[in-house]
């Protein structure tokens, strides 16, 4: 009888010990769950805060922009905007980056020769022209020099097969991620979520003339391009054709090159389209939450094409 009581007592103690362990483990788990839930709630609140700031900015910008006055309205609005905003004791820092009138590195692609090669090759020709215009006469990558027209022309024709073999290596070695490269070229290159080399003729400045020269494959002289930029009408160019006609009438370009330029300009130039990125960031000592948005403006319509949230320390 005594032995049975001892076994029963031992069994009760084991059950109590097991229950105690379960409670302890549960408390740890619940603690983690509460922490995770708190972080999710905090993250969501910061996201909604940043989205609210973005919405305020979007409404203000939409109100400012009027039809056919893109060049006169959007740039002063962006430049004159302060760099922070306070909402319910939350400080939000923000900045803006133009994503047009630059070389979109996403235009650089690799494809087989039979897959519309001229569309693939053209951005690389522009890229090479930019390097030459910036006096970058030689780039050595794993003993491969990009300093000879052989890579691009053979008997005055595009050497497609050699280009197809060379440029994947160029990308693979991350030339475009080189710190030294971007130190010299950061004002020329950008990255959008498309593969176009888009130029807004109404927002060009003289500093863009060398880039335009490269995009036009050096067919037009730099001085002619600068003159066209400085000759923009008060209300802006009404069409790309008007801008193009001015360039042609003030240059000695031959007829064959005129047809080449028409194809280039028709696809890569605009007079009423604009892209820029906004960066909204919470100001906190324990870390920050950030929202990067890509905007597209065409006439008086503003559209957000892309959003990216991130968290940092």
From TrEMBL:
GO cellular component terms given for this protein: membrane
Gene3D superfamilies, A to Z: EpsJ-like
Gene Ontology annotations of biological process type: protein secretion
Protein name in the entry: General secretion pathway protein K
Organism: Yersinia frederiksenii
């Amino acid at each position: 009888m005594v032995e049975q009581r001892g076994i029963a007592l031992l069994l009760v103690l084991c059950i109590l010990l097991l229950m105690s362990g379960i409670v302890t483990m549960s408390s740890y788990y619940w603690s983690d769950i509460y922490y995770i839930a708190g972080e999710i709630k905090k993250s969501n609140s910061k996201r909604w805060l940043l989205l609210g700031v973005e919405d305020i900015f979007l409404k203000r910008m939409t109100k400012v922009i009027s039809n056919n006055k893109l060049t006169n309205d959007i740039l002063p609005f962006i430049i004159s905007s302060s760099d922070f905003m306070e909402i319910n004791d939350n400080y939000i820092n923000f900045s803006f980056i133009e994503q047009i009138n630059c070389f979109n590195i996403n235009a650089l692609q690799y494809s087989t020769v039979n897959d519309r090669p001229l569309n693939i090759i053209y951005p690389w020709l522009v890229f090479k022209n930019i390097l030459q215009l910036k006096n970058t006469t030689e780039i050595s990558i794993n003993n491969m020099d990009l300093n000879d027209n052989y890579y691009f022309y053979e008997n005055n024709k595009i050497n497609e097969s050699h280009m197809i073999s060379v440029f994947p290596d160029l990308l693979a070695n991350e030339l475009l991620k080189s710190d030294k490269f971007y130190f010299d070229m950061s004002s020329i290159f950008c990255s959008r979520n498309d593969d176009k080399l888009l130029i807004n003729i109404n927002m060009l400045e003289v500093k863009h003339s060398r880039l335009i020269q490269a995009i036009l494959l050096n067919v037009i002289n730099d001085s002619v391009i600068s003159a066209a930029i400085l000759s923009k009408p008060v209300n802006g160019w009404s069409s790309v054709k008007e801008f193009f006609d001015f360039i042609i009438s003030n240059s000695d370009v031959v007829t064959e090159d005129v047809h080449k330029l028409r194809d280039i300009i028709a696809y890569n130039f605009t007079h009423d389209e604009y892209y820029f990125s906004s960066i909204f960031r919470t100001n906190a000592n324990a870390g920050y939450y950030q929202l990067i948005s890509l905007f597209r403006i065409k006439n008086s319509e503003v559209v957000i094409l892309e959003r990216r949230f991130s968290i940092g320390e």
